[in-house]
Q: What sequence folds into this?
């Protein structure tokens, strides 16, 4: 390690003198104030408090013995803590003293016209009626759970955890909302949002929406008692109602898992797709393209001493316009909802790094959701005329307007994966065009190529559809280049979406402007954005970004960068979890700070999920909609899953006052007991877990 690099790393770790990680103020003569001891660089091995970068030698090179040890134990509690990076206590960061207001001790937020009815049916799990009878709550009740967010949660279980929690993989409900209606006219009368997480089922959360062991994992354990648990990573699509999740395990097993209206929740067929990576390939991060086309996994290979990106084709139950409904075939690598039949490993891309640990993916297609647009299966691709229409649409420029009802009648022609290695100070860009255009051409050009994708030619062989890289190497994605970034802790590539409500759109930019930016967080709290429009624009040629177009500072060790799920509001707001500062920051697409959540309850935030939390399906008029942004925050050392509500005025209300009056405006009073002004956050509840939660992936599941 050069002296210059050591100095830059030392400065990167110090941050501002106020302990926030922000640069010190300029102007005048600064007043010396006590500061926390800065992170030390010990002979090139990064040491911050009790945390250190395990796999580095003193000269900054990879310690292959430690690399192998970490890989072999990647799923263990020791390595999960290492993977998450330094805690606030490692930085001597003081604990927050402020306590976010909690309006209801049980997290039940009620509203609507009939409050007495709301008081009856809005209950905690132990007090819910266990019957579908419409009169179970007296006159006027009809309805039930209607807005449920759930998915797979990963945690390191305690040694004495109950048996059902020993797997460290649960189907967990982040929060839910419901309505009750009058039997006479069906109008919404009583509303309920339950601002509490759960991994145990109740009447509203059937079909394994909440269960302490994910059913797919229970079945995997029965088949293999040596399955290393918990899973190391979880991922699902970025569209609304993406009910199928995927799990990666330390031994290379990749498996589908489901919730709600998904066959893998146990209510449909018992097919549980999975595959095993070649021996020695240890998964470290997982990402699914937005509409379930391809699954990507970063791996460490200790024998070959290299990192790779694995590419897995997904075979959906209901592929868009290629399915058995109209052509009698199954379509690998195309958009789908909601179930998956099988998976096939296409091959690997060698990365310019040995220890990839963060991953994000985006393609040139996107939608808010499939559900509710059943006409998407209306036209097949077995005619040249229809293939020609899809082909032309697939190559339109990134920001060309396409009606939402047409948005799935195309295939991705551009996209990229971004892979970070914190230990190696590298961020790699992988161009997915070769893969995507191979599938586009196979499905959408000639009759002969279309025929090759028929069921009769599908199978596990290299030369059976979908073809592996060994058989058709021209489809292998390529590494476009590498960015030198000091200790990248989080990478984020936002998926294109239709039907979004974004600040960039109201600002006069593209509604999907954030999709043209790659966002990277560094351990010192620096957030950088790079222009990657060419990588997701089918009408452009891929160009490697170089210098950042924008940067700002947040709390140290930002371990996650994300946005709300498709279908929510303010969907280009960036949510950044900074473990080293015990905070969650909410920023605009360009880095303007909206709000920062710091709460005395939060000991060690490491991840969050955010979605629109609604009751009454957003209602039908004034006082018939109860809604909020719901934040579920995983507190690792605190062993708690916290739920917060958040209110920041929706953009149309700001740009066009009165437009949303009586329909979309928030009905919950986000005000403190002694403060009539609206607050950005209110606390729902925190639920203790017999373990340390570290990853969560949710969607609207029914």
A:
């Amino acid at each position: 390690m050069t002296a210059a690099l050591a100095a830059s790393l030392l400065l990167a770790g110090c941050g501002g003198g106020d302990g926030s990680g922000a640069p010190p103020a300029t102007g005048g003569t600064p007043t010396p104030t006590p500061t926390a001891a800065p992170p030390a660089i010990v002979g090139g091995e990064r040491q911050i408090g009790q945390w250190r970068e395990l796999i580095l030698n003193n000269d900054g090179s990879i310690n292959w013995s430690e690399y192998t040890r970490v890989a072999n134990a990647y799923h263990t509690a020791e390595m999960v803590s290492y993977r998450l990076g330094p805690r606030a206590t490692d930085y001597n960061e003081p604990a927050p003293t402020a306590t976010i207001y909690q309006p209801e001790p049980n997290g039940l937020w009620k509203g609507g016209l009939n409050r007495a009815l709301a008081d009856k049916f809005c209950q905690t799990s132990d007090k819910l009626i266990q019957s579908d009878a419409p009169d179970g709550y007296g006159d006027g009740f009809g309805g039930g759970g209607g807005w449920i967010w759930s998915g797979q949660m990963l945690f390191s279980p305690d040694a004495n955890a109950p048996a059902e929690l020993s797997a460290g993989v649960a189907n967990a409900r982040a929060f839910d909302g419901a309505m009750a209606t009058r039997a006479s006219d069906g109008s919404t009368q009583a509303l309920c949002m339950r601002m509490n997480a759960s991994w145990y089922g109740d009447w509203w959360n059937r079909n394994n929406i909440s269960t302490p062991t994910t059913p797919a994992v229970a079945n995997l354990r029965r088949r293999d008692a040596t399955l290393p648990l918990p899973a190391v990573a979880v991922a699902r699509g970025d569209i609304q109602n993406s009910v199928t999740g995927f799990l990666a395990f330390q031994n290379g097993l990749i498996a589908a898992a489901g919730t709600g209206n998904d066959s893998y929740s146990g209510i449909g067929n018992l097919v549980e797709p999975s595959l095993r990576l070649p021996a020695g390939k240890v998964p470290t991060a997982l990402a699914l393209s937005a509409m379930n086309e391809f699954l990507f996994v970063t791996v460490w290979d200790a024998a070959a001493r290299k990192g790779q990106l694995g590419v897995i084709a997904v075979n959906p139950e209901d592929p868009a316009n290629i399915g058995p409904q109209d052509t009698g075939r199954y379509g690998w690598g195309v958009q789908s909802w909601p179930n998956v039949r099988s998976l096939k490993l296409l091959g690997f891309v060698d990365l310019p790094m040995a220890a990839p640990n963060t991953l994000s993916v985006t393609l040139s297609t996107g939608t808010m959701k499939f559900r509710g647009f059943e006409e998407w299966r209306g036209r097949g691709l077995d005619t040249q005329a229809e293939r020609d229409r899809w082909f032309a649409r697939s190559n339109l420029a990134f920001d060309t307007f396409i009606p939402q009802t047409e948005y799935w009648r195309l295939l991705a022609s551009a996209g990229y994966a971004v892979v970070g290695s914190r230990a190696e100070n590298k961020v790699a860009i992988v161009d997915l065009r070769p893969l995507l255009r191979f599938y586009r051409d196979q499905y959408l050009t000639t009759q002969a190529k279309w025929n090759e994708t028929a069921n009769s030619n599908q199978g596990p062989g290299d030369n059976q559809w979908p073809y592996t890289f060994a058989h058709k190497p021209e489809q292998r994605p390529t590494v476009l280049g590498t960015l030198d970034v000091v200790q990248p802790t989080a990478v984020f590539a936002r998926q294109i979406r239709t039907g979004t409500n974004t600040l960039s759109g109201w600002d006069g930019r593209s509604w999907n402007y954030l999709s043209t930016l790659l966002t990277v967080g560094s351990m010192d709290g620096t957030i950088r954005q790079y222009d990657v429009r060419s990588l997701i624009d089918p009408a452009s040629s891929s160009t490697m970004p170089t210098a950042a177009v924008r940067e700002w500072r947040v709390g140290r060790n930002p371990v996650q960068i994300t946005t709300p799920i498709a279908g929510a509001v303010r969907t280009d707001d960036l949510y950044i979890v900074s473990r080293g500062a015990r905070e969650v920051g909410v920023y605009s697409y360009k880095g303007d700070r909206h709000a920062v959540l710091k709460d005395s309850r939060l000991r060690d935030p490491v991840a969050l999920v955010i979605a629109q939390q609604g009751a009454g399906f957003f209602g039908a008029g004034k006082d018939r909609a109860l809604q909020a942004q719901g934040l579920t925050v995983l507190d690792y050392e605190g062993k708690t899953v916290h739920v917060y509500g958040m209110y920041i005025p929706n953009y149309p209300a700001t740009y066009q006052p009165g437009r949303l009056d009586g329909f979309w405006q928030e009905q919950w009073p986000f005000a403190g007991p002694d403060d009539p002004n609206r607050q950005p956050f209110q606390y729902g509840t925190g639920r203790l877990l017999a373990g340390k939660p570290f990853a969560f992936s949710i969607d609207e599941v029914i």
